[in-house]
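dumping this here so i dont lose it
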């Protein structure tokens, strides 16, 4: 049985009893904070000796988000087997992000500008093949839940086909409650009931920042709404993971 080596184990998971799962990180919009949360979550899980990985199958407007996931995983986690040399569970950038396009628009029109196509079957095959290597696989969507990713699918289609646990990310500001509830309404009920909501605190708080979580609690089951604090202008996953509040929130999401 492989021995899992973690840098910090302040909250140890019982890895042997964990069931394999896919968690899908979607959002209310572009810039909601999906990549920040995915980076934190994969870093935290690996830090706690869970062989987790993160994918962003489709990117448009550059590969910056996928690069951040790559940096969060690269060299951060190893499995040691007494019968063999340590083997890395790192993923290459192309494994994390197999489809990427230059234009800063939704992936579907960005792909068409380059005369390329992505089919739902291709995306699912890549995700499922990668899942075989990891206990927990995080999949980050692009844009909002219904933003077209390929010729015949969006993030909702992936969530449904993968039976993934949805996490909806939103900026904690005025208007967020309506956007979150609309996003949740678009998720099939059997998966909606499992969905988590993460409010990402902005640098400048408005009146709604203080009340959004409480208001959402009137519409969502207990323990499904989370808030992350402002993590600084120059975001550092390593720095954020030293914050006990952040770590408690990330653990609860899993």
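and the seq i came up w/
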């Amino acid at each position: 049985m492989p021995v899992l080596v973690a840098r910090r184990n302040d909250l140890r998971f019982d890895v042997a009893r964990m069931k394999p799962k896919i968690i899908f990180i979607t959002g209310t919009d572009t810039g909601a904070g999906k990549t920040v949360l995915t980076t934190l979550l994969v870093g935290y899980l690996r830090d706690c000796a869970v062989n987790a990985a993160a994918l962003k199958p489709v990117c448009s407007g550059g590969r910056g988000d996928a690069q951040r996931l790559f940096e969060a995983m690269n060299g951060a986690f190893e499995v040691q087997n007494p019968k063999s040399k340590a083997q890395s569970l790192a993923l290459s950038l192309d494994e994390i992000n197999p489809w990427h396009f230059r234009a800063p628009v939704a992936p579907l029109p960005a792909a068409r500008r380059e005369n390329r196509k992505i089919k739902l079957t291709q995306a699912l095959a890549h995700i499922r093949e990668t899942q075989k290597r990891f206990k927990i696989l995080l999949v980050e969507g692009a844009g909002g839940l219904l933003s077209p990713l390929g010729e015949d699918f969006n993030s909702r289609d992936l969530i449904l086909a993968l039976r993934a646990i949805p996490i909806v990310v939103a900026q904690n500001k005025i208007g967020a409650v309506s956007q979150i509830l609309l996003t949740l309404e678009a998720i099939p009920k059997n998966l909606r009931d499992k969905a988590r909501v993460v409010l990402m605190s902005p640098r400048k708080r408005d009146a709604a920042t203080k009340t959004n979580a409480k208001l959402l609690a009137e519409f969502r089951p207990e323990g499904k709404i989370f808030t992350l604090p402002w993590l600084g202008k120059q975001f550092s996953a390593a720095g954020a993971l030293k914050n006990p509040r952040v770590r408690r929130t990330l653990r609860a999401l899993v």
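The longest strand covers residues 21-27.
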